[in-house]
Amino acid sequence: MGIPSDMRRGIMNSANEQNTRRRAPTTAVRQTGKSVKIAVDFPAPLYRETERAVRELSMNRSLLIRCAVEKYLADIRREKLEKELAAGYMANDAQATMVAEEFAKLDADFV
Question: What is the C-alpha separation between 83 and 91, in angstroms, rounded?
């Protein structure tokens, strides 16, 4: 007893759809000790600019890329924190205004 033809077509169609979907690019990864080596694709102009910066800064490519990724991730974390703080200030704006007004009355008594 085999797979019914209509079920087989459904399976094949599903497999074809999965094969035609855009897949995330794969990255070669190799772990050596405490570091992980990766292979990354760069557009040619970015590669040339990276190589020029490596020569000008007298550093190796890995260090330059590592520093750039660290800075990028730190910037993302900072932006996220700033948004969270702004949202917190906005959420507590009415309460902060009320407290400031109450203290303004007390401050006027001591002046």
Answer: 12
> Dihedrals φ, ψ of 36, to 5°?
-125, 125
Task: Please report, to the nearest 10 degrees, the dihedral formed by the alpha carbons of residues 71, 75, 76, 79 taken in order.
Answer: 170
pLDDT interval class at 22 (50, 70, 90): low
User: Is residue 3 over pLDDT 60?
Assistant: no
Mean pLDDT of the chain: 80
CA distances from 41 to 6, 46, 96 (A): 42, 10, 50
Whole-model pTM?
0.55
What gap in Å lies between CA 69 and CA 67, rounded to an integer? 6
Contact 28, 39 (CB under 8 A): yes
Integer Cα distance of 53 and 45 in angstroms: 12
Q: Is the per-residue pLDDT at 56 higher than 90?
A: yes
Domain edges within the chain:
5-110
